[in-house]
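Researcher: Hi, I'm a grad student and pretty new to this. My advisor asked me to get structures for two proteins we've been looking at. I'm not sure of the right format, so I'll just paste the first sequence and hope you can take it from there.
Model: That works fine. Here's the first sequence with its structure tokens right after it:
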Amino acid sequence: MYEGEYGHEGERCTFETLLACFGLENDAALRRVGEVVHDLDCKESRFGHPEGAGVAAMVQGIAAAHERDEDRLQVGLPLFEALYRSFHAGG
């Protein structure tokens, strides 16, 4: 986040930085969400998870449909919660 307390560190995106700061890197499902977020945020295909394209399309749609960050968060958080649950269940 621009001028936020947390941000990119080295090759990590902000989400990956948060996982490291809060000791959550051992959660495989969170780590995989972080890899999807990394590729989207850094405009890379380093991890190349097949879910990445769909998540990117959903995030773009949410951003286009909602102008306020608060609304984007309210709509987008369930998307990432579902992604996490999918990975946690072995998806």
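Researcher: Oh nice, that was easy. Here's the second one.
Model: And its structure:
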Amino acid sequence: MDANDRWASLLGAWAIPAELIAAAPASPYFFDATVFIAAADEATSRTEDTVSDRVAREALPAGGTILDVGVGAGAASLRLGASAIIGVDPSRQLLDAFVDRALRLGITATPIEGAWPQVAPTTEVADVVVCHHVAYNVSDLSSFVRALMERAISRSVMELTALHPMTWLAPYWKSLYDLDQPDRPTADDAIAVLRELGIAVHQRHWTRPIQMIGETGDDQLARVARRLCLPAERLNELRVALSERPPPVEREVVTVWW
């Protein structure tokens, strides 16, 4: 099995059992647009660059352009000083938030609604391509990355968590359902796919706050319960589990570039 097939197989093992989804009060697969919008606002107000920011800036010429795949509201790209940003995302709500913030900063924004790499053939090239926290949603990582490479003039920069982003939920799956979660794929497995493509990969590990939790108290409880397919009558069990083992506040991430 090659690295790309292994990546897809390992991702597939994260599927929640069908019987739990069928019994869940709401789908555990959801995204909260306010989290991505808050991340963009935090990024544009931050005074210090992250590792990913610095790596992207190094390759961005004055007045240069950025392609941001999985742009969200612009957290990965708005702060980098580009004159123009092409933002690709399947969410129209997030694209609208991205465009609004870009215009406020005097940046030309081109929103492209759709999934990558399907929209790649109609997407312009850019000096730098950035793609943050998308890899674990992509089963065919090889095709995804090839399309990034074809659109980057100077550099491609990916940021991803060192471990699967839902790994932090593993103790709760175990305590509430006696369900063991996988421990792969990891960033190392993604890097193996890149190397299989012949890419000379650079990488750096660092830590950042977890942005995908964000809430406390009842708000956090409701979000975690939904992720875990828990009905309302089991919320007290979850409350106990969270008190015994609070969710982490930061996680290790990896910046990968070539």
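Researcher: Is there anything I should tell my advisor about the second?
Model: You could mention this: The domain at 3-11+30-163+183-217+249-257 is CATH 3.40.50.150 (Rossmann fold).
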